[in-house]
Amino acid sequence: RYVRRRRALLATEADRHFAGARARMATLDNQLMQMPQTGEAGVTAWLQWSNDYSAALAPAMPGLERKGLNTMIGDGSEVLTRTRQHLGQAGWIGFVQYNPVDPQTSALGPARYLRYTVTSAGLAIKDLGLRRPIDQAITAWRGAIDGKPSAEGTKLSQLLLADLGADVQSRKDWIIEPDGLIALLPFEALPNGVDRLVVEQHTVRYATSMAHLADSELSASAAAKG
After folding, report:
1. Closest CA to 98 of 25, 39, 180, 42
2. Alpha carbon distance 190, 61 (integer Å)
3. What percent of the chain has pLDDT over 90?
4. Residue 213: enclosing H or E segment and its boundaries?
5. DSSP conformation letters of 5-54
6. SS3 118
7. Rounded to an integer, what distance in angstroms lies between the CA atom of residue 161 and that of residue 187?
8. CA pair distance 225, 143, nearest whole angstrom
9. Hey, is 143 helix, strand or coil?
10. CB of 138 within 8 A of CB of 156?
11. Kindly report the CA angle at 6 between 180 and 59, in degrees rounded to 5?
12. Can you tell me the distance from the alpha carbon of 196 to that of 59, in angstroms, rounded to the nearest whole number?
């Protein structure tokens, strides 16, 4: 919401500081597509790009704040509360790829995947481990997929869906928020138990973010009252 509002203000206001920021950010957006994406070079390029992006925004920030940009920053618990209220009988399964930071050196560690689940009853978080072996399992399964349970699919299911709480497993509807290579997975085709696929037990939908769902539900509720 914050980024969408910021872009909308920058695109519509005539303030000279906004115009300068627009031009510089357009250049940076183009650079982003050309940057290395992996390894030390990728980290270095991303940090430099982030610094340049912040510097480009700096002259426009006072004007953006006067336009009410900061009102878009809310408490994350509010988003979680709204999401849980509107999930009903559905279960949310989200995946996030991240790099842990060494608090002593500020160096980035190897990328990992985190899984979080949300139902109307509660929230659970689990670190799934290093991203690389999970990505390798995704690639192997996609290369061998034939619509039937397989060794590759069983391994991948164990990596991504192991230890799901009973409150999630019992939900007929699942909403999946993927990240990284996990976004390439049709979760319906993954095994979920002995000789059974997820699609045989759950209806699967996909979402881009919990905040987007919460905002959509809030807008729909407001429209209904109007």
Report:
1. 180
2. 46
3. 19
4. helix 210-225
5. HHHHHHHH---HHHHHHHHHHHHHHHHHTTS--SHHHHHHHHHHHHHHHH
6. strand
7. 10
8. 49
9. helix
10. yes
11. 115
12. 57
Q: What are phi and psi of 52, to 5 degrees?
A: -65, -40
pLDDT tens digit sequence for 135-167 = 999 888 887 765 555 678 888 999 999 888 888
All residues at 6 or more sequence positions from 179 whose CB lies less than 8 Å from its CB, including other chains = 94, 95, 96, 97, 113
Tokens for 94, please give them. Answer: 């989200």
Give the global pTM: 0.61
Does residue 21 surpass a pLDDT of 80? yes
105 SS3 class: coil
Burial class (CB in 10 A: 0-12, 13-18, 19+), 223: exposed
The pLDDT tens digits for 83-127 are 666 777 888 899 999 888 877 777 888 899 999 998 877 788 999
